[in-house]
Amino acid sequence: MDHNVPPTGEESISENNLNIENNMESLLKQEGMDIDFPAPGEIRSGVIASVTPGQILVSVGTKSEGVITGRELEAIPVEELENLTVGREILVYVINPEDQSGNIVLSYTRAREESSWTEADGYKDSGELFHGTVAGYNKGGLIVHIGELKGFVPSSQFSYARRSTSSGDSPDQRYSKMVGETIDVRVIEVDRERRRLILSERAASGETRESIKDRVLDELQVGDVCTGRVTSIADFGVFVNINGADGLVHLSEVSWDRIQKPDDIVKSGQEVKVKVISIDRDKKRIGLSMRRLQDDPFAKKIESIQVGQLLEGTITRLTKFGAFARLEDDIEGLIHISEISENRIEHPKEVLKEGEVVTVRVIKIDPENHRIGLSIRRVDSSAYVDLDWQSLVTDLDASVTDETGAAEAAAETATPEIPIKEKAAKPKSKAKSAKKSAEPETQVDMETPAPEAEVEPAAVEVAAEPAATEMDAEPAPAEVKTEPAATEVKMESTEVPPELEAPNDMTEKPEQETE
C-alpha cells in the first residue's frame, strides 16, 4: 500500500485548527496567562458580580463574566432569588461556553440539580442512610427531597410499620397523614437520563423481602380477613400484597361468577379485601380468596332442589366422563357416564346430544364445591316411589289451591249486571200480587174439606214456587216473610205427611163412605 497519500481538504483544515489551538495554549503559558476555559455541562463555583432585574452576572475565573438570564433566571424560586446578592459565592452550570455575543451562558438551578445528582450517587455508592422528610405523595407512594431532586419511595418499599398504618381507598386517605413525617431511606436507583431517583425505607430498616414474608407468615392465620393491594394480574389469578408479602387469589376464587380474565374484575394497584384460605409455610405461599367474602348465590339457587327430585335439564356439554345439564336458574349438574343408561356405553354421545332436553333425578348436592349429581337411569327407579308420590300429591294440592284462589279472586272482583237498588221497589207489588193470588187458594183449602183440592200437587207447587222464587232472586221485604199465607204455604209444602196421607190412602175411603 501507498502510505504517502496526500491529506484531503477537510483533514488538512482540522489539523490546522488543532495546531492553532495548541499554539495559543503554548503562547498563553509562555506569557503566564494560563486561562481555564469552561466546558459545556461543567459545574463551576463563581461569585455574583451584579444583579439586575433582567440578569445576574457571575465571575467564574475567565476573562469575561458568565450571565444568568431569560428562562434560567425565571426558574429560580423567588425566596432564593432574594438571597442572591453581590459578592455571594454560588455554583453555576455551564450551558454554553460562548454565545453569539461572546458571553458564557450559565444556570443556577441546573447547578443545584447536578450537585444533587452527585449527592445521590454518593449515597447510593456508600449505602449511607439519608434522613429526610416526607414532602408529598402520589398514587404509588411518597415523595422525599434530596437536594433539588424529588426522590420516590414506592409503597412496596415502605417499612413494615408504615404499611400497617397505610389504609384507605384513595391516596389521600392512605398518605396525606404522613406528609411532614421524618423518614430514613436508602438510595437504591439513580438514573439521570430518565430522571429517576428511587428510595427505600424497607432497605433502611434492615428488612428484606424474605424476612418480611417470614414475619407475615408467622402472624397470618387461615380465616383472617386482610386489606391488600393488587400488585400484578396473570391469566391464572391475581397477586395481592398483604403487609409486604404477596399472596395469590386464584382465578376460581376471584368471583362466584364464571370469568375468563381476572382484569375484568380488578385492576392493578386496586385495594381489595381478601380472606386467607391456605398457608404453606414450607413453600412460603399464601392462598387468598375474594369471593368468599361475598354472598354465595349458589346456596339460594339450590334452596328449592332436594336429593331425589325430578327435574328437566338441557344438555350443554358432552365429555368422556359424562354430560353436563343446565337446570333452572342457570345451575349445571353432572350426569356421570354410569348414570346415563342401564346399558354400558363408551361415550355419552351414543345416547345424548347437546341441546337435548331430558328428565333427570337429583342424586347428590355438594354446596361447598358447587356440584350437583344427576342421573337419567334412576328416573324410573323404584327406590324413589314414595318420594315421587309425595311430590305428585304436593303438586296437586298446590294446583287446587291456585285454582280455588283464582276463583275466589274472580268472585270478589265480579260486578252484578243489574244493581239491586234499581229493583228494590218492585218486589213489594209482586209480593202483594203473589199474596192475593195465593190467599184464595189457601182459603179454599181451609174451607172445603174435599181431599182433591188439598191433595192437588200443582196447587201446592204453584203457591210455594212464586214465594220461593221472589225470595231467592231478590232480597224480599220483611212483610213477605211474616205473611201467614206464605208461611202456611211453606208449611204445607214441607210438612205435608199427616194431612196428605189420609186423602191419598185408598183403604180409608170406604170407611168414610160407610159412615
Task: Show the helix and strand layout.
Elements: H1 9-30, E1 43-51, E2 55-59, E3 66-69, H2 71-74, H3 78-81, E4 89-96, E5 104-107, H4 108-126, E6 130-138, E7 141-146, E8 149-154, H5 160-165, H6 171-175, E9 182-191, E10 196-200, H7 201-204, H8 209-219, E11 225-234, E12 237-242, E13 245-250, E14 271-280, E15 285-289, H9 297-301, E16 310-319, E17 322-326, E18 332-336, E19 357-366, E20 371-375, H10 385-413, H11 426-447, H12 451-455, H13 457-473, H14 478-482, H15 484-494, H16 497-504, H17 509-514
Parallel strand pairs: 3-5, 13-15, 18-20
Antiparallel strand pairs: 1-2, 1-4, 2-3, 4-5, 6-7, 6-9, 7-8, 9-10, 11-12, 11-14, 12-13, 14-15, 16-17, 16-19, 17-18, 19-20
Helix pairs in contact: 11-13, 11-15, 13-15
Structural commentary:
- Helix content is 36%, strand content 27%.
- It is of the alpha+beta class and 515 residues long.
- Strand 14 (271-280) and strand 15 form a beta hairpin.
- The protein has helices at residues 9-30, 71-74, 78-81, 108-126, 160-165, 171-175, 201-204, 209-219, 297-301, 385-413, 426-447, 451-455, 457-473, 478-482, 484-494, 497-504, 509-514; strands at residues 43-51, 55-59, 66-69, 89-96, 104-107, 130-138, 141-146, 149-154, 182-191, 196-200, 225-234, 237-242, 245-250, 271-280, 285-289, 310-319, 322-326, 332-336, 357-366, 371-375.
- The chain has 17 helices and 20 strands.
- The model is unreliable at 418-515 (pLDDT under 50).
- Strands 1-2-3-5-4 form a five-stranded mixed beta barrel.
